[in-house]
Amino acid sequence: MTKGNCGTITELVDAISLMTTSLMAVLKILLPWSHRRRVASLVISVVQDWSQVNSKKCQEVMLRYAFIGRVVFIVQMSGAYMTIIPLILTRLPRSVELIDADNRSLFLRNIPIGPRCWVSLEISTFTYSLYYIFVCVHLFILATSYLGGDVFAFGLAMHLCGQFELLYRSFEKFDGNETSVIQRKIVSQFAKRHNSLLNLADDFETAFSLLILFELGANAFIISISEIILLRAIKIGDTQIISAMAIRIYLMYIQIFMYSYIGEHLSRQAEKLQVSIYSSRWYKLPPIIVRDLKFIMMRNNHLFHLTAGKIWNMDYQNFKFIVKSMFSYFSILRLMIKD
């Protein structure tokens, strides 16, 4: 390995981004594993819900949310793999000749990502080929684990949103004309299901909260260094680096937006239950049933929020604040580099 500062700025940023995302990929495996009982309860509930679908309307609602999760999965994973393939095809395993600033010829060996000067010319061709294959395999595993953890969490959250919607829709059919025994049974089933969904939402928040915090930190770090390189590239007019950094910054914002989308929709679906109860014909119900409904509404007063490490609520409002803060930082950097 060649020691010292070598390689282009883009290659160095790629190497730093690779190390950061590799660490995050490990965390996206270890942190959910540390909460495996909570994650298992979420997965088991998904299997049970799909095995107990008893009406076409329920199936349509569940399929709608499953479709959203499937689209995100296909877009994210195909986008990740389509990003890796050009890296490999544009840097096939061979030696290349480059001209440095002193007009001297340099012979380097290609690798899919990172500074090519880090690969020694003294190693054998067989060792170099094995190293190249290892890097390629690492990139595909990294993409699968890094984005796979996000789309897995997104799919679980979308299913929870669907179950909340089914719950408040089921209460809309409660017209108050049933017998007192049936009314008690309906309210009891509603309360149990409501409590179960809130517990599942808490399990989701506990299992992924710390992971989201690390995700925010890692993405903010990658965005920051990418913005510095982007400003320097704009200053010298390097369109290749400009496009590469712009795409990287865009992808990092997409990752943050995914969790903001999850938090926003889970909170909204949970809040709609109060509206559903209030909009029902509760005035036709006996006082004892109305009292039970009040307890359910009081239980829902504790609003659900998906957080990043119990510090930062993940929703649209805070996502806009993050974007504004990063662009303010970008403006300050631009003035500093300009001066």
UniProtKB/TrEMBL annotation:
The chain crosses the membrane at residues 12-31, 67-89, 130-148, 207-230, 242-262. One of its GO terms (biological process) is signal transduction. It comes from the Eukaryota. It is a multi-pass membrane protein. GO terms for cellular component: plasma membrane. InterPro entries: 7tm6_olfct_rcpt. It is found in: Cell membrane. Pfam families: 7tm_6. This is Odorant receptor 24a-like. It comes from Fopius arisanus. GO terms for molecular function: odorant binding; olfactory receptor activity. PANTHER family: ODORANT RECEPTOR (PTHR21137), ODORANT RECEPTOR 19A-RELATED (PTHR21137:SF35). Keywords: Cell membrane, Membrane, Olfaction, Receptor, Sensory transduction, Transducer, Transmembrane, Transmembrane helix. The keyword Coiled coil does not apply.
